[in-house]
Specification:
The protein is of the alpha/beta class. The protein has eleven helices and 15 strands. Strands 1, 2, 3, 4, 5 and 9 form a six-stranded mixed sheet that branches. The chain has a six-stranded mixed sheet with strand order 10-15-14-11-12-13, with helices on both faces. A three-stranded antiparallel sheet has the order 6-7-8. GO terms for molecular function: ATP binding; D-glucose binding; glucokinase activity.
Length: 325
């Protein structure tokens, strides 16, 4: 049973482009029974969600708060990439009455969760080579958006560097890649990785496939996944292009960050594609780097299947910096 004792709990929030997950932690441990999920649609900001949550749980004065936002964070302020919200640490403090507040990028929170997840929450994809303790790792998020964050262990503790790599240029190698890039540019003006490797990116790939086949369609991501599951011709072609690009981008990021401790895919789209990676050539695309192909086989790749991993990471992050929380 949750107590209303002031300054006992830490509030955690994982704010995605579609949903916000909120929970409480005590002494650095996520309390699973307190997890609630809220749809962002129709909400003007994060604060009303936090107010609703605190009323539901019967808490009003918290010791700390740590939120993870899907967007760039600077000086305690997050600007959501796929949502018109601005998350500010002082506004969170006003709502929660928390003395300690932290705002992270959502992939940073995923990085801080590594090592704190249940063993069955992580599914192996590629074995890689055995890593030394303390080796760098990498989390790659594929959901409403796309992003990645390197994870480093240092003498002062874990460092998870923020990035916005979902908005780098979409790699183009083949004629098909170039055609897809031009197709994406017609709508977005610039073809970024996230315009293909995300929920809305999946919609765009399917539109590209059906347009090229002479029967253009516009479908929501959930409907595209249903087509892929049903093994329609358009669904299979969409899956092939999506998985090939994800493997290629993951390989590029691996060469950039050298995560010998492992690469961890997370996010709803990554989880949905897990059964399809082998069939559509993720490993082959990941290692297709010429003379560095064998080198890339050293990196283990897995999928984080815990939908609340970012909340675990928020709890670990704030507890490491304020052990009383």
């Amino acid at each position: 049973m949750i107590s209303s004792t002031p300054d006992r709990y830490t509030l955690l929030a994982d704010i995605g482009g579609t949903n916000t997950r909120v929970a409480l932690a005590e002494a650095g441990r996520l309390l699973p029974e307190t997890i609630r999920r809220y749809a962002n649609a129709g909400r003007p900001a994060l604060e009303p969600i936090l107010v609703d949550y605190m009323q539901t749980e019967g808490v009003s004065d918290l010791a700390g708060a740590c939120v993870a936002a899907a967007g760039p964070v600077r000086d305690g302020v997050a600007h959501m990439t796929n949502l018109s919200w601005v998350i500010e640490d002082h506004a969170i403090a006003n709502v929660t009455k928390a003395e300690t507040v932290a705002v992270l990028n959502d992939l940073q929170a995923q990085g801080h969760a590594l090592g704190y997840l249940a063993p069955d929450a992580v599914r192996g994809l590629l074995p890689g080579a055995e890593a030394r303790p303390g080796s760098s790792q990498l989390v790659i998020g594929v959901g409403t958006g796309f992003n990645a964050a390197p994870v480093h262990e240092g003498p002062g503790g874990r460092i998870v560097a923020a990035s916005e790599c979902g908005h780098i240029t979409l790699p183009t190698v083949s004629d098909e890649d170039i055609a897809l890039m031009r197709f994406v540019e017609e709508v977005h003006g610039f073809a970024a990785v996230e315009d293909v490797l995300s929920g809305r990116g999946l919609e765009r790939v399917h539109a590209f496939v059906t347009t090229r086949a002479g029967a253009p369609e516009r479908r929501a991501a959930a409907d595209v996944m249903a087509e892929i599951t049903a093994r329609t011709a358009a669904g299979r072609e969409t899956a092939r292009i999506f998985v090939r690009h994800l493997g290629a981008v993951a390989g590029d990021l691996a060469l950039t960050h050298l995560p010998f401790g492992g690469i961890h895919l997370c996010g709803g789209v990554a989880r949905a594609f897990t059964p399809l990676f082998a069939e559509f050539g993720f490993a082959e695309a990941f290692c297709a780097k010429g003379r560095f192909g064998d080198f890339l086989r050293a990196f283990p790749v897995s999928v984080i299947e815990d939908d609340y991993a970012a909340l675990v990471g928020c709890a670990a992050y704030i507890h490491a910096r304020a052990p009383q929380l």
